[in-house]
């Protein structure tokens, strides 16, 4: 089974597979963002955005994308425990999508670095500047909970977003293979030698938006594959959505 989400909705595709107790892998994409779901007897037993796995990754993918190709490859069931019972999965997916939409009205992505204005015991983790993802790790809580705390901090005036992101620290070395992606961003070629991080490249005058578009296309095509590329691609696409790119 294959098609486009502009013709049949993602929820209809999921319900078809569930209703027929299908086993196999559903692969889909909206824009540059890919999602892979593994089914066993109609239940979702694994989900990933590139190397980012599990429910946390799944629930950041839009449940109602307007378009994008999909393909379901049926195969023998490899078993596995459902991530959640199917009706619960759809309900939670919709609820968490709504939560992400709300939080992103103030913080465009979990990679945004925030600074504390009044370092309360909970928010002192942001002293000196820290991303929501780094705060989640420091707190030992799920990313969504960290995002809610950060959202409340910004809303109450205890936190403010800085003009940088976690990915500013990345160092990318261009390996000399001139692919299509880099041809579209020739301005970057001489700067991607691994000697500077992306924040320093931007400080040299390369527009942030250009660097972001390059990263999205290079990650989506597999041209670059740093650890954490799944969550990085999700955050970058969120940032582009916030700018109407």
Q: What does it look like?
A:
- This protein is α+β, with helices and mostly antiparallel strands.
- The chain has three domains: 2-100, no CATH class; 104-165, no CATH class; 170-242, no CATH class.
- The protein has ten helices and nine strands.
- The chain has helices at 10-19, 55-58, 86-103, 132-139, 143-155, 180-183, 186-189, 198-203, 208-221, 229-242, and strands at 2-4, 24-30, 33-40, 43-49, 52-53, 69-74, 112-116, 130-131, 159-165.
- The strands form two sheets. It has a six-stranded antiparallel β-sheet. Strands 8-7-9 form a three-stranded antiparallel β-sheet.
- α3 packs parallel to α5 (143-155), α4 (132-139) packs across α5 (143-155) and α9 (208-221) crosses α10 (229-242).
- The radius of gyration is 19 Å and the shape is globular.
Keyword list:
alpha+beta, single chain, globular, 9 strands, 245 residues, 3 domains
Topology:
Elements: E1 2-4, H1 10-19, E2 24-30, E3 33-40, E4 43-49, E5 52-53, H2 55-58, E6 69-74, H3 86-103, E7 112-116, E8 130-131, H4 132-139, H5 143-155, E9 159-165, H6 180-183, H7 186-189, H8 198-203, H9 208-221, H10 229-242
Antiparallel strand pairs: 1-6, 2-3, 2-6, 3-4, 4-5, 7-8, 7-9
Helix pairs in contact: 3-5, 4-5, 9-10
């Amino acid at each position: 089974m294959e098609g486009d989400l502009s013709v049949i909705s993602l929820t209809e595709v999921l319900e078809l597979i569930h209703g027929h107790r299908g086993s196999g892998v559903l692969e889909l994409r909206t824009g540059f963002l890919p999602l892979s779901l593994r089914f066993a007897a109609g239940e979702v037993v694994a989900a990933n955005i590139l190397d980012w796995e599990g429910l946390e990754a799944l629930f950041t993918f839009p449940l109602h994308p307007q378009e994008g190709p999909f393909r379901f490859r049926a195969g023998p069931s490899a078993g596995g425990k459902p991530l959640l019972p199917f009706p619960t999965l759809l309900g939670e997916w919709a609820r968490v999508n709504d939560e992400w939409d709300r939080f992103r009205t103030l913080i465009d992505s979990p990679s945004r670095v925030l600074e504390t204005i009044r370092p309360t015991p909970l928010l002192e983790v942001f002293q000196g500047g820290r991303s929501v993802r780094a705060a989640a790790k420091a707190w030992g809580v799920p990313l969504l909970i960290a995002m809610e705390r950060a959202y409340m901090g910004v809303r109450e005036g205890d936190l403010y977003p800085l003009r940088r992101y976690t990915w500013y620290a990345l160092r990318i070395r261009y390996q000399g293979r001139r692919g299509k992606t880099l041809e579209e961003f020739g301005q970057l070629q001489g700067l991607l030698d691994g000697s500077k991080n992306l924040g320093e490249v931007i400080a040299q005058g390369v527009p942030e938006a250009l660097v972001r578009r390059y990263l999205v296309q290079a990650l989506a095509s597999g041209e670059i594959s740093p650890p954490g590329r799944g969550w990085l691609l999700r955050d970058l696409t969120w940032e582009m959505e916030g700018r109407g790119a």
